[in-house]
């Protein structure tokens, strides 16, 4: 069918160009150096790569426990009106444009701290991760057969212990998949970082300082008028996608092996 | 639901025959001789756990409330200064502190509708192809590929649009359009490439995976006998798809389209990179424009002065409200189809 070809051509073109332009531009300096001033050749995005990982780690620390907890609440205690309210809220949150989340993180964190910071970026991304994690966790927990819970109760195990060591454990790989889905979604987010993490030309691993992030750097370089920066933007885009895919694949692999080991 | 079968936590717990077997279930419990079940302890644990999980759930609710609260609070100064005229005003002049959001609202609407115009037929085509006529061997890779596209960050789409799409538009597509359709007035002016048209196209590429994956889901729940009945009445394959499948699924497809619209309205980066960022309302699609999300992305961190900042936040509030309405509508429609019954009011 013609439509399929029409759709696949631009999509394929995106991939092809990304790989072609990206691989042509990645080199050792790109991965190990900080940006050079305009006009100087060389330099790289090492600080942005590390900065992205740092902000994402902050976001995961803040977002994952809350998201999983809310999912547990919905699956185990949330079969009521209040549960429906939270379910609906999570769906609404999922649809909030990322730039609006950025504004909120700005007014909560940046305005109180009086400066841009990695923490503000982490908060923004965490808010974006929570609804996805909540809904997938709930779905995965509901897939666990009721008989398993009943067996645990029959053995006299308290309910909280059953939830944590039986139900959640059975659903681990599904829950982790949900977390990685949320992670992959926010890893490439630029809009909420524009006025929270803000970007930085230098190394930073302090929670309270502006921090560089890969998507931000790609954006800045892409709209700049310099060829050298364009080249680096392509390389950055390729590195970003490779990092996202590897992170997701690595965690899924580890989880799969882990659950087989325990079984 | 089967959840009513859950034993209540306050029920008397029968003592296990062999306590060690129970603790074996969890490595942490192994080798401890103390009976790890004692009624009181379990109950306290249950209560603490339930409260902790409840807090997480409430946090989700609180986040949304906080978003609304912050947006409303901080857009106050602009609301007081301009009132409803804010949304009708055409001037965006930070220097003299005159703010009107009309050009941005216009840009957001036009670019999103343009994206739908391009994306809807294509994504329905893809969905129909993968569910109804695709050879089995191709089905998996095709849907995998389409799903993969949903994972590409929007800044990467933007990057591609700047360096591939825009030059393509300015040297081939736009001259062609202005030659053939220039008389309509929608395709006139110099073909710079950076334009409302470019924004619409890149948005279309970005929402195709969303619309087509939801449409596919909806098409798959159309009962097989509907197809067979249509075929039995002598319908051709195309008639079968049109009457037996698409008509049955139209509410769900509509939901998918509106969900795509929600994404297009809020999309920031890719649009900012190609739309030209000029707060003007022009009839021609070749002219640069500006969207609500892009003005936030470009001007928020440089906004000086309270009114300027709060005018931007008011745009954010408007964007937030619109996307919520759009998303709620979409979910309602998708649920109606996939659950086979009218959704509850709070869907």
3D architecture notes:
The complex is a heterodimer of chains A (263) and B (347). By secondary structure, chain A is mostly helical. Chain A has a single domain, classed as MetI-like (MetI-like fold), CATH 1.10.3720. In chain A, 76% of the residues lie in helices and 0% in strands. Chain A has eleven helices and no strands. Chain A has helices at residues 2-25, 28-32, 46-77, 81-95, 98-113, 118-143, 146-154, 159-170, 172-187, 214-222, 227-262. In chain A, helix 5 (98-113) packs across helix 6, helix 9 runs antiparallel to helix 11 (227-262) and helix 10 packs antiparallel against helix 11. The longest helix of chain A has 36 residues, at 227-262. The mean pLDDT of chain A is 87. By secondary structure, chain B is an all-alpha fold. Chain B folds into two domains: 2-74, no CATH class; 89-338, MetI-like fold (Orthogonal Bundle), CATH 1.10.3720.10. A two-stranded antiparallel sheet of chain B has the order 1-2. In chain B, helix 5 (102-133) crosses helix 11. The longest helix of chain B is centred in the N-terminal third of the chain and has 36 residues, at 39-74. Chain B is globular. Chain B starts with 18 loop residues before the first helix and ends in a 9-residue tail after the last helix. The model of chain B is unreliable at 1-9, 16-23, 29-35 and 340-347 (pLDDT under 50).
At the fourth CATH level, what is the homologous superfamily of chain A? MetI-like
Could you say which overall geometry of chain B the principal axes of the C-alpha atoms support? globular
What is the CATH superfamily classification of the largest domain in chain B?
MetI-like
Named CATH architecture of the largest domain in chain B: Orthogonal Bundle
Main sheet of chain B: which strands, in order across?
1-2
Reading the helices and strands of chain A in chain order gives: HHHHHHHHHHH
Helix content of chain A: over 70%
